[in-house]
Amino acid sequence: MTNEQNAQAGTRPPQAARINNERSFHDDVFVDPYEWMRDKESPRLKQYVADENAYTESRMAHLEPLRNRLFEEFRSHVQETDMSVPTRMDGYWYYARTQEGRQYAVQCRLPVRDEDDWNPPEIDATQRPGELEGEQVILDANVEAQGHDFYRIGGMDISKDGRWMLLGVDTNGDERYDFTIREIATGHELPERFEGIAAACFTPDARYVFYTVLDEAQRPWLIRRHKVGTDVADDVDVYREEDERFWTGIGVSFDERHLVIGTGSKTTSEVLMLPVSDPEGEFTPFIPRREGVEYDVSFATFEGAGERGEDVPAAVVYHNATNPNFEIDVIDMRAHAAPYSLGDGTMIACGSPYGCELGDAVIEGASAMPVGTPFDDPRNPELLRGVRGLAIDGIALHRHFVALSYRADGLPRLAVMGKDAAADDFLHGRPWRFEAVTPPALDGDWTPRDVPVPALDGFDGEAGRLYSIGTAGNPSYDAPRMRYLFTSYTRPGELHELDTRDGADVLLKEATVLGGYDPRDYAERRVWVTARDGERIPVSLVYRRDAMRERMPMFVIGYGAYEISSDPGFSIARLSLLDRGVLYAVPHVRGGGEMGRAWYENGRRLRKKHTFEDFVDVTAALQDCGLADPARTVANGGSAGGLLMGAVANMAPERYAGIEADVPFVDALTTMLDPSLPLTVTEWDEWGDPLHDAEAYRYMRDYSPYENAPMPEPAADDAAHAVWRDGEAVARYPRIFVTTSMNDSRVLVVEPLKWVARLQSAGLDALIRIEVEAGHGGGTGRYRQWRDVCYENAWCLEAMGAEELLETAVR
Description:
By secondary structure, the protein is α+β, with helices and mostly antiparallel strands. It has 15 helices and 42 strands. Strands 28-33-34-36-35-37-38-41-42 form a 9-stranded mixed beta sheet, sandwiched between helices. Strand 25 (about 400-410) and strand 26 (about 410-420) form a beta hairpin. The protein is globular. The two termini are about 35 Å apart. Keywords: Hydrolase, Protease, Serine protease.
């Protein structure tokens, strides 16, 4: 809808004031008429925000019946009164209860029966919190949130004896948390408060609190020590991170023997340690930082594995000093005293160097190889050999088992082995004998030949469930069995417990989806699309099996930044799309971490355009093969994925009927030019430094959505007409729907406001919904969040022309 059509419908978008502001860098001048919107406290901006919200509500009013239907569909699938599986920590079983009609979960616990009590108690989920004999309510967020429009817990730490709770809360959405110390049994709070901080933790005995302070740019930079029972004004600085690229934080090691400070930028990290027995001592680096090297360290014990039955202490180091896709080294601390260096010890798992910027340091010519080239290293466990896109994500050593997390073929994987076998392999210098953990098959599930997709003939790929799998709920070193969680796009999550001693796999909980939901009605498929530069891009497709046809409405979603992977996961809200015959597509674009470090490197800094090109090329491939309809395709992304949305709207507007951008990072260049803004300096490793680097400036100037969006050109009829930077008329542009929040500290509200104002001034159809009391993650409370997603999905379904349920999906 253009502004002319808006007028015919009796509504026009607000007319934002134009106050020209020149931005001049590297011999380039950009005139920005909306930079005045940066002052979010100004009366002018507050009125503009109110006017935009009113305009959006008037334009969206006709969708209220659809929104209500979507909400009822959502709610019909949810087991509203439920509880999590209890998890043992120290002397208690901890779990969360949810109750029908209540916005927040209630945190509860039961005491363990004895030291050998490792079987979670059976609890009636329908009971009211605190009704069960012996049950303690440790936090009812429904009570705590009263009087607040926004409420989010930002941290909860409990002392080892279970008496004290350290609780952090944000009540305005700016991600600055106020922490208090509360006695769980009585609810009594100590007088000391830690206000506006990033995070905090107890020492195990709760005699000290260590916490992280934010600077004016929202960077966690200072660690302080507080002795419980003393005045906060007397707290001591124990670590300052002066390098503005680095964030820092503190916690207690898994074995509870050390306090650990972790500090890192996007490309470099360092770990400093202090024994918990000496909390007022000095932190020292485990291994001094080295520019461009990331590492982490943990400690483990191979119990009774020595020649005389003694324990073997070990340091486990995860790093990329000698392999850009990371490796895990285990150091026998009996044979190697401190100090340590990266690369010490025995390498037990390493990732693929193919396609990585520094891959040639591992294998000559590796950096020029396709990322998906199968990789084989004889030192690796057998199940890692010949894997494509191999990345090592981490390892956890418990008393009875060892779990290895890695990525292969664009998906997360999990492997496990017994601790005794691991000790034997380590001490004898053999590759470790990990075995893959695979989800149990679904009874009566379809097979690949049951879900043909004729339009995709010739695409490389296969049908089958696309799983995410990983360890979950294993906070205790002594637990005899490993818990793991898996889920797919259409198969609800299951929590299992695996005993490595006999292979017994027990289902602890399966997510309940009401309303007659059957995962066998839905299919998943992984295809690989060749991008314009020849790289093969993994794509996940999800759809109802009985809805597959040509020229489908398509909802395509992406992110592609910070090495964050868009992995498979179940969503109740997605069902309302699938049940209306929508094809759900996820291009796993470069800039994410789906195929390891090389995938990330090839979608950041001066290669960032690969992210946008991959998304467009996948969209085009699915449309050109006849599977999806460009006139019924809607794209979605949030935050850095919102940058992706703005970029593809400018690059390929003909491919999308609509674009939903959530808290979008669309004024990226302006932000990266201002080091006083939150996150800017730390983000230069991600996007480049356009302030000091002219090449980075020109590169970002060429893709940053705001500067490259269509602009108005007055015409004889006094109506605004959209033109591109070169003056060419905009023939087609997608409808735009934006969500944002006034208190967002990551993507400031000024960015989406300016973008929408520019689009509207050019006569294009752009709507923005602005949360006044919320932050980067939107509102809080589950019912409010459900209504928000239904609000957004209603707009998307209308843009796709898919408002009505399929006859086969009518419930």
